[in-house]
Design goal:
heterodimer, A: alpha/beta, Rossmann fold, 2 domains, six-stranded mixed beta sheet, 26% strand, elongated, disordered C terminus, B: 12 helices
């Protein structure tokens, strides 16, 4: 597809990590091409954060290999650190410093030099809509502002590979969308993003490739569309105004699953216009009134629930 | 390329960060000065009459305030180490420390920044306590050379207690235990020659008072400030300071390198 030779930003082979007897990561293999967004999706406790902590040199793996930006994780951690930026799950801002001071602290630790550090701090404050709050301490910031400051601090040294551990957890919908915009903007500049999330919508919106992590193993990997194809297809849901309509419709349509309490039928079908028209015609011929109709294509929620074991009862119906 | 090349600049950056913290959250530092000054008031104006009379012909006998100031100064150092331990412990629970660990910076800078910041604060606090003592009638006989020696001894003591406090702050599970771990340090001036001569105590306490690290340091300071005999105490004081510094440093380094999980 892509004619250009794609370079690998993050690669891992057979990564393992145990805490005591519990295998948190049990042989993880993955590849993230440069300039793409990779989402590691999984329920709570799947090992997402551990994965980020290992890849960002915060903790060491028990076994396996990984290369970040071409540098080996175990033998060249210093070089890995110069290539990466990390925004962890828990706010990594200094609460007693102002937003501006936090950014200048990062610039100093990246050895940018005074004038360049100040210039970069001002630029990021503007970019992340924090200019007005620049001289207030981070302790006074709202959740969304803290996240933005957190990410801005990560960007100070222009890292080529950025790890984001649940970047939008606990944010309101508007802040979440702002964060998504920022992330997309970064990738447009050629940055590679490795993010973890438990929001399927987020992975669907952002990620070029998604890997599903469950109990320390990757249970599926691919694009959002590829993952959706892994589970049984779409259906059309019909709701009726009474028992009688439901009964006759079920007789007329044959192979359907029904929910008597909700007065709904689920008919297998892909929701295309011809199939919908055919379905409605059959009901019309039988003079059955349909109260409401909706088309359901499988979303990542269905994939998530079908492929991860601890996510509760599998959806009934199809 | 190596992070080691940035040892000095990274440490300076961390020092600036810690000093900013003190300016933003000064209550801890205020208590470091207030506590010893309150003890000074107590021991000069409340207990001082009786204690001073009891000293009699003991070395430094004379006015009790001249006897008690070295002990109060060590109490200042002990109080300051408590504040150091708490601030290190609190800092380690902050997410930003995990961020520092993923950056290509000179790793010990985080600790040396704390040590440098605490040293500056502790020495300033001691200066303020000295000032309070002078206002209350403390009259040292030391000349400039002896004052420089006093500052030297206090710097060594502060360095030692600060590294120890950093280690305690790192091993403490939470700020509460970080504030209680250095508590024995605060008792040492009392269980030494800080407030009454060691040879006036009895039994095990006398043995403890004569053999614990604060006693030779107090005797050295008292000798430098008011001209009482110092003897072998100066050598002992330097040895204790060097030993505690080395032990505290090695301990802190080992705990810090063990990993980010607190």
């Amino acid at each position: 597809m892509n004619k250009q030779k794609t370079l690998t930003a993050v690669s891992a082979a057979g990564l393992r990590k145990s805490f005591g007897d519990v295998a948190v990561l049990d042989g993880i293999d993955l590849n993230v091409p440069e300039g793409t967004i990779f989402a590691l999706l999984g329920p709570n406790g799947a090992g997402k954060t551990t994965m980020v902590q290992i890849l960002s040199t915060l903790i060491t793996a028990d076994g396996g290999e990984a290369r970040i930006g071409g540098h080996d994780l175990t033998t060249e951690p210093e070089l890995v650190r110069t290539a990466i930026g990390v925004t962890g799950q828990f706010s990594a801002v200094d609460n007693l410093l102002t937003g501006e001071e936090n950014l200048i602290l990062m610039a100093d630790l990246r050895h940018l030099g005074r004038p360049e550090g100040r210039r970069r701090a001002a630029e990021l404050l503007g970019l992340f809509d924090l200019a007005e709050a620049a001289r207030k301490t981070a302790a006074t910031y709202s959740g969304g502002m803290r996240r933005r400051l957190d990410l801005a601090m990560t960007l100070v040294g222009d890292p080529r590979i950025i790890f984001l551990d649940e970047p939008t957890a606990g944010l309101d919908p508007r802040s979440r969308r702002t964060m998504w915009q920022i992330i997309r903007g970064l990738v447009a500049d050629g940055v590679t993003i490795f993010l973890t999330t438990q929001y399927l919508e987020e992975a669907d919106h952002l990620a070029d490739r998604i890997a599903l992590l469950d109990h320390g193993k990757l249970v599926a990997e691919g694009t959002a569309d590829e993952l959706k194809r892994l589970i049984p297809g779409s259906h059309i849901r019909l709701r009726f105004s009474g028992e009688n309509e439901l009964e006759s419709a079920a007789r007329a349509l044959g192979e359907v699953s029904r929910d008597g309490d909700a007065l709904t039928l689920q008919v297998p079908g892909d929701g295309s216009v011809p199939s919908l028209r055919a379905l409605l015609n059959r009901l019309e011929n039988e003079s059955i009134d349909v109260d409401a109709l909706s088309v359901h294509t499988p979303d990542l929620d269905d994939v998530f629930l079908a492929l991860t074991s601890q996510a509760g009862p599998v959806k009934d119906g199809q | 390329m190596s992070a080691r090349a940035h040892a000095v600049s990274d440490s300076a950056t961390m020092l600036r960060r810690n000093l900013r913290h003190v300016l933003r959250y000064p209550s801890m530092s205020v208590s470091v000065v207030a506590m010893p000054v309150i003890f000074l008031l107590l021991f000069v104006y409340v207990f001082g009459g009786t204690l001073g009379a009891g000293l009699g012909g003991a070395p430094g006998g004379g006015r009790y305030i001249d006897y008690v100031v070295p002990g109060i100064i060590l109490l200042t150092a002990a109080t300051a180490s408590m504040s150091t331990a708490v601030s290190v412990c609190v800092d380690m629970t902050e997410g930003i420390v995990a961020r520092f660990r993923t950056m290509a910076i000179f790793r010990p800078a985080l600790l040396t920044g704390h040590v440098a910041g605490s040293m500056i604060l502790t020495m300033l606090s001691m200066g303020l306590v000295f000032g309070a003592a002078l206002l209350m009638g403390f009259r040292p006989t030391a000349g400039p050379a002896r004052w420089i020696a006093v500052i030297g001894v206090l710097a060594m003591l502060t360095l030692a207690l600060t590294w120890l406090a950093v280690a305690l702050g790192l091993v403490a599970k939470n700020p509460e235990s970080a504030s209680s771990l250095p508590l024995p340090l605060m008792l040492l001036p009392f269980l030494g020659s800080g407030f009454v001569p060691a040879n006036s105590m009895s039994g095990g306490f006398r043995w403890l008072a004569e053999n614990q690290p604060f006693t030779p340091i107090i005797e050295t300071l008292r000798g430098l400030l008011t001209g009482t005999p110092i003897g072998h105490n100066a050598v002992l004081a330097v040895a204790w300071c060097a030993g505690i510094t080395l032990g505290g440093y090695l301990w802190a380094r080992a705990v810090f390198n063990r990993g980010p999980v607190h």
